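User: Could you check the structure of this?
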Amino acid sequence: MKLNTIITTVAIALGLTASLQAKDLAQIKEDGVIRIAVFGDKPPFGYIDSNGKNQGFDVEIAKDIATDLLGSPDKVEFVLTEAANRVEFLRSDKVDLVLANFTQTPQRAEVVDFASPYMNVALGVISPKDAPITDVAQLKGKTLLVNKGTTADTYFSKNHPEIKLLKYDQNTETFDALKDGRGVALAHDNALLWAWAKENPTYDVAISSLGEKENIAPAVQKGNQTLLDAVNQSIANFKTNGKLKAAYEKTLVPVYGEKEDLLAK
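Assistant: Sure, the predicted structure tokens are below.
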């Protein structure tokens, strides 16, 4: 067997295959479309409405980026993702950009390139009002629901091994598990939990801020510098020309009210 064949076989076995080359800005402009990963089940950030259309805060920003780079909001191709797939979608060139409520962490920054943030969040914990979890200590030996690959998953796995985690791929699965009593509480970004609690008033975000505030930012494949620079410029433009605030007022204010500390400066 040839040496390069052996190396390739070992690399595949170890999961070390290289990323497929991402499209740079010039190629995206030549194709006339930018592929952007968003959630399909995480209102008010990314979801599918009753007409089958993508809606939400991330979706509005995606359309603005498409307009900025390609001249029209119709030049975006939305690709639905789950939290655990966001990095892989970039590595496998399934998408050019991730705008799926992606929290910027040092670990993730080693494998993707984050653009300038557009939102701030912290972790929260939601539980039934008649059995509230108001302190992390109450979770010891109990089951907490999280989504795979989220900051909640990472935070509790690292800092609280005494808590049993039940993990799901999709947000709908995780929240259904909470309703079914498969866990005493659910941990996720606090902004998402506030929105869900408004629609499900028998639940309360009794722990509204856990750990440090973190940034939500777009991400591109590692090393895709031309697209990264362009997205950075777009985000900077949106912060000064009012488009970021307009997206916030359209999608988040109806859910949260005026909480402009959610927006990154």
